[in-house]
Design a protein that fits this description.
This protein has about 375 residues and is of the alpha/beta class. It folds into two domains: about 200 residues, Quinone Oxidoreductase, Chain A, domain 1, CATH 3.90.180.10; about 130 residues, Rossmann fold. The chain is built from twelve helices and 17 strands. α5 crosses α6 and α5 crosses α11. The N and C termini lie far apart (about 50 Å).
Length: about 375
Amino acid sequence: MLYTNISGCQLVELCKIAGVLKMRIQQEIIMPKMRAVQIARPGGPFEIVEREIPQPVAGQVRVKVQACGICHSDSLVKEGHWPGIQYPRVPGHEVVGLVDAVGPGVTQWKTGQRVGVGWHGNHCGVCDNCRNGDFFGCTGNHQITGISFDGGYADYMVASAIALALVPEDLAPVEAAPLMCAGITTYNALRNSPARPGDLVAVLGLGGLGHLGVQYAVKMGFKTVVIARGKDKEPLARKLGAWRYLDSQSQDPAAELQKLGGAKVIIATVTNGDAMSAVTGGLGINGTIVVIGAAQSMTVSPLFLLSGRRSVKGWYSGMAIDSQATLAFSVLAGVRSMNEVYPLEKVTEAYERMESGKARFRVVLTTGF
């Protein structure tokens, strides 16, 4: 017999070991794993870890991530600058992927659909701001993707069903991902500005936000002026459709804008307050400078604002429906982000490339799905 030389105690131990092995095998089958890039502490390194694939609860959707852009705002997670953020945290709010599973009560999304998840992750819907339609100002349950909950630096993520935007088939995942933040921020700010087709609109900066802002401004029919540092950027500005280019190193951009009649709108995409202050004087009567670059401060003359009914305004990126509109317009008008692409496992190299300011112009991670 097989167990002739095995004692009863040994047989019991073998049975225990077999039971443990069986349970582990079952766990591996029932709970498959995924890769996720987490930050364990403020200022800590990126860690590629293995986690269980998350399960969507009521009102949530699980997304199989195909691409996720690296945004400068991810530094808020990396360095711990966002108040109250909990660690470990998976960053990423420029997410594009496939609906992989839906939680109870979700009827608007089906498995297999390609969707995007942007900065705005959720809102309560019942506070006064939400009741007024100002969901970005939610005071009840305002959540931000990759900050309030784990984002898209992973093979899978879960998000609220109301945070999803449908991605057109004409946009590849890598093309669509940066539009979920950089794209929606510039497009939404322009379409909600006072400018109308034919008006003079200046775009300050020709970087990750600016190169998209120029394209949107041109396609919306604005007389588009690009303001940036150095003559070397003029060929790109012209290629993107700019009507005029102003080199802020050799010209006074405010004075030059006034020679052109004054700007109806200046979209400030840079993160330098001094650069913003230097162009504000180029606003025409009833002109508005729309700030979308997160500078610490800027200076503006109250007398200049008063004398021409001019204004300074900030603009929040937008909701999921705004992301969907951004994607649709981008397909219609041929607006595309210029990207550098890295596989998920090279996240540290990709992030450093973004931080260096040398990327042309957005950095995107891919999972291989």
